[in-house]
Amino acid sequence: MADYEQKTPDSASPDDKLLEDSRKGLKEQMDDESSQRNDMKDDIKFCTLDQWPADIRREREGDVENGPRPCLTIDKINQYIVQVVNDMRQGKPGINVRPQDDSADVETAKILKGLVRNIEDQSNADIAYANAGESAAKAGLGFFRVTTEYTADDSFDQDIFIRPLPNTMGVYLGPHIMPDGSDAKKAWIVESMPVAKFKEEYPGKKFDVEDFDGLGQGQEHWHSGDTVLVAEYYCLERVRHELYFLADGTTITKADYDKWPEEAGQKPAVAEKRITYKEQLKWAKMTGVEVLDKRDLPGKYIPIVEVIGHESWVEGKRILWGLVRPAKDSLRMYNYFASTITEKMGLAPKAPFVGAVGQFATHGDKWRKANRVNYAVLEYDATDVQGNAIPAPVRQGATPMEVALLNQMQVIEHDVQTSLGMFKAATGESESQQSGRAILALQRESDTGTYHFGANLGVSIRHCGRIIVDMIPHYYDTKRIVRIIGEDGEVQTAELDPGLEVAKQERPGMASIFNPGVGKYDVTTTVGPSYNTKRMEAAATFVEMAKGAADPASAAVLRYLVMRNSDTAGSDEAAKLLKSLLPPQALQAMEQKEPIPPQAMAVVAQAQMQVAQMQEGMQKLQEENVQLKAGAHTDMVKIQADHDAKMKELQLKRAIAEEEAKLAREKAAAEIELKRMTAAADAEIEGMKAENEKNNAIKKLDFEKEVKREEMSKEVAVENEVEAEKVAPQLIDSMKSIVAEFAQIVAQQQEFQNKLLAEMGQKKTITAKSSSGTTLTATIQ
């Protein structure tokens, strides 16, 4: 057992046991990760342009005998790191919350999702995510944390925040396997604090170096003489519980069963019991000799999230690295060759002018400066010292640069790209002889080679979402109105009530109340373009469709949709103005939110397909054109002819497609008009039927009145038998005549209706006349 592993006696205080456990665990992690963390520190220094080993730089720059030699640093690594980090920022995963059991609610899950977005927004979580992702890209390891802060100085309410941990080397997680650190049971966040600052923040606490002498060998990191190491210590402590399964089907711990309230009635019988263990999250802030603060925290996760780069396990040991380490040797070799070329050029002699003695006598000062000053005119003496005519001085050729060194630098640069899995196309560079497809293939290969960095960040953000969802019921434990943020950035509010027995309670005419503590919820992440990016893509799609719109109405609708999905200045006002110019049918469909007719959907789908085909054809023609330009000149005439023929064929297909689309629209309009006219004719026939029935009813009523009058006359006639005998035959004949006339009217009405039904669909005029002189006329479409 090492000296620092001092056994704590059973009589020691809880703080002493806590300190001993923390010191022992931290020392084990430091020893286990020491070698790897040294490599990570060197990787980070390499990114800050400290790329020469200290001993080699000291030897080259301190050469007293031959003079200092250049140690150039050509930054070739940070462009690739920035590319990977910015890709992670653009494709930041979004946290989704979904219900997991029967007690959970879908609407409550949406509220939790909006609340998580609000926490990310208030915390500026993008900074924490990018910081950890950049550290993982450089050194292979990064961290951020989830913490809580009081909402105000005079409040006990707390809000959840996501904070960065920029000092990666100051964070240690206990033994774990998961790449997000979710299975770690211990964690430390350490900070070396100057003694003066420590005395100011923690007055009355031990700070003298003598106070730390008793820690033993291997614990010197707790006090360096000028600094005191302050550590935040998290641990999940297993607590033993006895679990009861009661006769009524409920499960309860023995402690809660012993506290059964009397007003709840008699205790149910215990049907079964077993021993179980629950984990309690504990937090403490300490030095090596003293606990500064401690408390128990709710939750089942240590609120520190790990982000990794490359990961490999060798002989049971975890190895992590980022982009820098595989490329360091190639980059150092590149710096060495650049320094060597520079040194050779600096030591190479200047190209001198050669002439006879006496040629430089008149303007000797200018000739001596000719290698450093650009003179427009250089005059020379045309005779030598003996008076003989001589030609002009001649400059000797410059020392040629070694081509092998320059070629080797290109080879080294390719080695750097190979070790990174990224090529020039990934950073926007391309060779002039490369085709568009070749450039896209290189970009896709580079994206695939570095995809795991963004994927690992997504795994870590998902764990962050689990931590937040687990913490929300514990910290939002009072009635409050919280702010939630939708996917489109719209801000709303929701009311939380932890006293509800259900996850969601609806209130008539009012907003629902939610309890996030009821039910279990799971967390997933989605990686892809942001909401604003989707809006931009939609706007671009509508622009292309508007260009190919065949009628003004469709173009007006598409232009309105372009502005509504645009983020440019004045887009809202432009969208309002364009909305006022929309056709009435479009405005009515927008207000009533009616589904688009199938005919119109078919036309739009056909148009989109035609546009896609035309774009594909144009792309093929462009690619063929590029290939043809690279071919022999003798084939250009034939190629141009084929190109023109294909263009004409494409234009013909486009014209045919436009004509077919136009015919389809006209056909759909004709079908709609036919249905409208048929409905109008049916309505007109129904009206005529109703009118005829009304007339028949009136006549029937008149007939009944006439019968009643006849009956009254008959009753009067009965009083006089003599008169009755005379009038009776006439009365009978009159009644028969009336009955016959009514039967004739009914027969004529039936004949009229039969003619109407027989001649429907044809525009005809039917006229019928009753015996009473009434003329009935109907025109049928």
Structure in words:
This protein has 781 residues and is of the alpha+beta class. It contains 19 helices and 21 strands. Strands 4, 5, 6, 7, 8 and 9 form a 6-stranded antiparallel beta sheet that branches. The protein is flat, with a radius of gyration of 46 Å. The termini are far apart. The model is unreliable at 1-7 (pLDDT under 50).
Q: How many strands appear in the DSSP assignment? A: 21
Strand content: 15-25%
Biggest sheet layout = 6 strands, antiparallel
Helicity range = 40-55%
Distance between the termini: 107 Å
Uncertain regions spanning at least 5 consecutive residues: 1-7
Number of helices: 19
State the secondary-structure class: alpha+beta
| Shape, per Cα inertia axes | flat
Query: Which radius of gyration do the C-alpha atoms yield?
Result: 46 Å
List keywords for this structure.
21 strands, four-stranded mixed sheet, alpha+beta, 50% helix, 781 residues, disordered N terminus, flat, six-stranded antiparallel sheet, 19 helices
What does this entry show, briefly?
This protein has 781 residues and is α+β, with helices and mostly antiparallel strands. The protein has helices at 14-47, 54-61, 78-90, 106-123, 125-139, 195-201, 254-258, 324-347, 364-368, 403-420, 436-449, 451-475, 531-547, 552-564, 571-580, 584-592, 598-629, 636-718, 721-758; strands at 94-99, 141-150, 158-164, 171-173, 186-194, 227-246, 251-253, 270-286, 291-297, 304-308, 310-314, 317-321, 353-354, 394-395, 480-485, 491-496, 504-507, 510-514, 521-526, 764-769, 775-780. Residues 1-7 have low confidence and may be disordered.
